[in-house]
Write a structure and sequence with these properties.
With 498 residues, the chain is α/β, with parallel strands linked by helices. The chain has 15 helices and 22 strands.
């Protein structure tokens, strides 16, 4: 068996690497299917130890002035930026995403969020309110940290998601026990060590590795105050149900089946570029993917011919090549899942296969064993097809023709999911009217996918609970305490002597 490229990955708590007592599993390079590293999973007792470490650290970290916490976190921001390319290479190996993407998006956007929340708390973001009720009575509020929080990461944006969760958590004064996805776990120790180097005290940020069973134990643990989960809807429902039994706070960022609506006046080139970003960026492994592309019937032929012409600009290949912009799927299990949807689209749904399909991209030397799939386009689709209804989480675009904008909006909303949606048009008045009717928590106009630190994002319906990022994102990591102070010297009472 081929030797792994990375040393064995253990746990991290009390500010240092800790030996795990659970089983061992392997991280795989999806571009070649070769092993990357042996990952030592945590046992339940290991999780208990990590939580105990976080509990001890909470006592002092929660009392550290926000501006002092911010100074430490900003040092971590600089370390992330200094090591951007090094971390991005690890992300490329672990996820199969091209280095051209991980080096410009994954670490960068994660560091941006950490910087945003550090500056937010340093600038008074945790301040409460003061209200004068009457001349001699006041009410004041405080935002206090929750305690020990559990973070459960997803495999598609490993370090970015870890930072999206840990940044507001730590900035607000909480501590965290974080479980990376078992599919892409290599970022965990890297981030934990960066936090420690920056001056984050031992126990404030901890890493435990393992599968879904370990995640279930962590999220249901009685000493956990909050669970923040990113993943598929079915798993999110289980996590939320478990957390509800313990009355834990939750943030759920779940899946989607997001619509792209191309209005009749849209520039076709721009709309096609948007649809491609909404379907093929990160090999389609993005929760906000706009996989249902609604195109006016009279524009359909031009849209498809333009799309086919631009497909030649999707370039799979050596992931470290600056020109490569398309990678493999993340794992063999996921590869088989995506292929099964493509097969269903052809053989059962009866959609027209316009591009791509079952074959792998042209042979690439040394990459033949990887989990590569061609970017795929189906047209002549209808709303009842499985490939239109269910989240595929792969590079599979479906084109749906419509005759009226009202019809397109109604069909776009006809899903239990509501994560993202987008509109392409030259008329901003029309854009705002359409966006205002779309049932989604994240919407874009004439663009797709950008999610800056300043923008609060979260799903509607079954796509999630709560938001991440932006000023509202900090509120998910604090609890309110209101105090009424009466200075009159008299206690109002109904029990006075008559």
């Amino acid at each position: 068996m081929t030797e792994a490229f990375h040393p064995p990955q253990h746990l991290y708590y009390d500010g240092k690497v800790q030996m795990a007592s659970g089983s061992i599993f392997r991280s795989i390079d999806p571009s070649t299917s070769r092993p990357l590293a042996d990952i030592h999973a945590a046992s339940h007792s290991d999780v208990d130890n990590a939580i105990t470490s976080a509990q001890k650290a909470f006592l002092s970290w929660s009392r550290t002035p926000p501006v002092a916490r911010a100074r430490i976190l900003l040092k971590a921001v600089q370390l992330l930026r200094d090591r951007n390319d090094e971390i991005a290479r690890i992300e490329t190996q672990d996820t199969g995403k091209p280095f051209s993407e991980t080096s410009t998006v994954d670490v960068v956007t994660g560091a941006d969020v950490l910087e945003f929340f550090a500056n937010l708390v340093a600038g008074g973001g945790l301040n409460g309110e003061t209200v004068q009720l009457r001349e001699d009575a006041w009410v004041y509020t405080k935002k206090e940290p929750l305690g020990i929080c559990a973070g459960i990461g997803a495999w598609n944006y490993p370090i970015q998601i870890a930072l999206w969760k840990s940044a507001p958590c730590l900035a607000a004064g909480n501590t965290m026990v974080y479980k990376p996805s078992e599919v892409t776990p290599l970022h965990g120790l890297v981030l934990a060590q960066i936090y420690t180097e920056a001056g984050v005290p031992p126990g404030v940020f901890n890493i435990v590795n393992g599968g879904g069973d370990l995640g279930a134990y962590l999220t249901s643990h009685p000493r956990i105050a909050k669970v923040s989960f990113t993943g598929q809807v079915s798993t999110g429902k289980k996590v939320a149900s478990s957390a509800a039994k313990g009355m834990k706070y939750v943030t759920m960022e779940l899946g989607g089946k997001s619509p792209v609506i191309v209005l009749p006046d849209a520039d076709v080139d721009t709309a096609v570029d948007g649809a491609m970003m909404a379907n093929f960026f990160s090999t389609g492994q993005v929760c906000t993917n706009g996989t249902r592309v609604f195109v006016p019937l009279q524009m359909k032929q031009r849209f498809e011919s333009t799309l086919l012409e631009k497909m030649k600009h999707i370039r799979p290949g050596d992931l470290m090549d600056a020109n490569t912009n398309f990678g493999p799927l993340v794992s063999e299990v996921h590869y088989q899942k995506v292929l099964s949807y493509i097969q269903h689209g052809v053989e059962t749904d009866g959609a027209k296969l316009l591009y791509g399909g079952f074959d792998k991209p042209e042979p690439m030397e040394g990459l033949e064993g990887g989990y590569w799939v061609k970017p795929t386009i189906f047209t002549d689709c209808n709303d009842s097809m499985k490939i239109v209804q269910e989240e595929i989480f792969g590079p599979v675009l479906t084109i749906l023709a419509y005759e009226s904008v009202e019809e397109a909006i109604a069909r776009a909303n006809a899903t239990p999911l509501g994560l993202a949606a987008g509109v392409f048009t030259r008329d901003l008045n029309s854009a705002h009217k359409v966006v205002g009717q779309l049932e989604a928590g994240i919407t874009w106009v004439n663009t797709w996918g950008e999610s800056p630190a300043e923008m609060s994002v979260g799903g509607w319906k079954e796509s999630g609970v709560g938001v991440e990022n932006g000023k509202r994102g900090l509120e998910a990591w604090v609890r309110n305490k209101s105090t009424l102070v009466d200075m009159s010297g008299v206690v109002p009472t109904v029990f006075a002597k008559i």
